Amino acid sequence: MSKATGIHDMGGTEGWGAAPVPRPDEPVFAERWQARAFALAVLSIRLSGTNLDAFRHAMNRLDRRDYLDDGYYGRWLHGAENLLLDSSIIAQGTVEARAANMSGGSAEELGPPEPNKPDYAPAAAGSLREVSSAPRFAVGSAVRARAFDPPGHTRLPRYVMGHTGEVVIVQPAQVLPDTNAHFQGENPQWVYTVRFGSAELFGSDAEPFALHVDLYEDYLEEAP
């Protein structure tokens, strides 16, 4: 498994138990720290001079404990820490030292290093973009999700790699997260909603259903 397809890429894996069903009246923030974690995550993107795709990549690089044990907003908080470390807004060990001191310890807190923000500026607001090229695939096209080991960030789920489906919707062109997360250009391209059969993804014993996945053009090739 590559770093790009880490703990976050759970689709099709087993052993996690039943998925909890949220209560209809469940609050957005069950505890005050969760609201603060959300705010810090949003602020970390601005402070680091990065983007939402870089933040997702910062979360996807977490280990199993940091991604799962502290819950949904816990991983946002750990992802924000990764993003601030990447841009040298905080020094390695700063969070641990501050936590220890707040608990009565005497850990040395290092001052902030020299920031190392990326040379990045979005071409426009949001992620939708206009492209001059026509869509490579049309509704009804048989396509296969590419099977490869991504060198960095990707939004291509591991469980659809190498599997064949059918395009059911051609979505507007959007910024490609794989390059945008690493500040290598927005590379906007068409997005396709692809329908996969359950047997194709999970074998002939799978309960019959159709799964729809939105996939960028670079993730797809013509089905053989």
Automatic annotation (TrEMBL):
Its EC number is 4.2.1.84. Residues 6-105 form the Nitrile hydratase beta subunit-like N-terminal domain. GO terms for molecular function: nitrile hydratase activity. Residues 1-20 are annotated as: Disordered. Residues 129-221 form the Nitrile hydratase beta subunit domain. InterPro entries: CN_hydtase_beta-like_N, CN_hydtase_beta_C, CN_hydtase_beta_dom_C, Elect_transpt_acc-like_dom_sf, Nitrile_hydratase_bsu. This is Nitrile hydratase subunit beta. The gene is nthB.
